[in-house]
Specification:
The protein has 329 residues and is α/β, with parallel strands linked by helices. The protein contains eleven helices and twelve strands.
Length: 329
């Protein structure tokens, strides 16, 4: 009787390295229209492994284990379906803060940091005015100079209208200690996320999350020094032409500005005038082509127009208004 002779066991296929996975993922994402495929492939893997992108480069030859490969494959497939990176990782950096992100809430954009920068400038003006009134003489701080992190702003009252993840209000609260922020949103998901971010950042004592439709809130608001907002400003007819990452994954309520993109400003700026104390400011994000229209709405509401500020890309991005000193609510 003959006996079968078995050969040596087949060699296991080695697990792919970091570099090999990135090289496989990049053309996959590119074929699906992802704008920055290599960058996203690296960011998603670095986040999964708890590495910086620099560390990723240093460890390009590191082989991954099966569970890591499987999780990376899931992330790349999701990105190939045009799910935003922030929804896959569950976080987004904004103005030096790491914010948690969830489905159903607008993802903070880099250009919105310009809103925070302008809000800090007018907050400095507001604080300087108070010091001048208290001291009876000129302030040592120049007007329009943004407060540094940790600068005291006792009693500075801010409303972040349509707070979403809490990005704008939390950034202001983190830079102006002693200030209080009322983070207002009609979405329970957004309010829960803002509360979670405030808790994570140690700001929960000074950031009050309330339900509301613009400045019509479930709990009374004080007279405010500053109203900030990134309202929806995309005309309804343009929503279907947005990138899939926005059109298919972000809440329509946070995007749809009505037929001309100005519907929310027509309500928000008159309400801001009613809730602002004399000398208070309204700082709102705008679409690059809507600056003049927003200016007219603010002036018709009785606010004094100060300026429009451009973002880093050179686009008109923020409109700033002021309520006249001594004007009654």
């Amino acid at each position: 009787m003959s006996r079968s002779v078995s050969g040596p066991p087949a060699a296991r296929k080695p697990m792919p390295t970091i570099l090999e996975l990135i090289r496989l993922a990049t053309p996959y994402l590119a074929a699906r229209g992802v704008p920055n495929p290599r960058l996203d492939a690296e960011v998603l893997l670095a986040d999964e492994l708890g590495l910086s992108r620099l560390d990723l480069y240093v460890q390009f030859d590191r082989p991954l284990v099966k569970s890591e490969v499987d999780e990376y494959r899931r992330r790349i497939v999701a990105r190939g379906h045009r799910c935003p990176v922030a929804l896959i990782t569950g976080k987004k950096e904004f103005f030096g803060l790491e914010l948690m992100i969830r489905p159903g809430v607008l993802i903070p954009r880099p250009e919105t940091e310009t809103v925070v920068e302008e809000a800090l400038r007018v907050a400095a003006d507001r604080l300087s005015s108070r010091r001048l009134e208290t001291a009876g003489g000129p302030s040592a701080e120049g007007p329009g100079e943004a407060p540094v992190a940790g600068e005291a702003g006792p009693g500075l009252k801010v409303a972040d209208v349509g707070c979403g993840s809490g990005a704008i209000g939390l950034a202001i609260a983190s830079r102006v200690s002693g200030s209080e922020v009322w983070a207002i949103d009609c979405s329970p998901v957004a309010r829960e996320l803002t509360q979670a971010n405030a808790r994570r950042l140690g700001l929960v004592d000074r950031v009050h999350v309330v339900a509301g439709d613009l400045l019509q809130t479930s709990t009374p608001l004080p007279l405010l020094d500053l109203v900030v907002s990134n309202p929806p400003y995309i005309p309804s007819a343009e929503l279907t032409r947005l990138a899939p990452e926005i059109r298919d994954y972000e809440p329509r309520l946070a995007l749809d500005g009505g037929p001309d993109g100005l519907a929310v400003y027509r309500r928000l700026l008159p309400e801001a005038r009613r809730f602002l104390a004399g000398g208070g400011y309204a700082v709102v994000e705008i679409a690059p082509d809507r600056g003049e229209a927003v200016r007219r709405i603010g002036e018709a509401a009785g606010l004094s127009f100060l300026r429009i500020t451009r973002d880093l890309a050179g686009h008109d991005r923020v409109a700033i208004f002021r309520k006249d000193e001594g004007e009654a609510p």
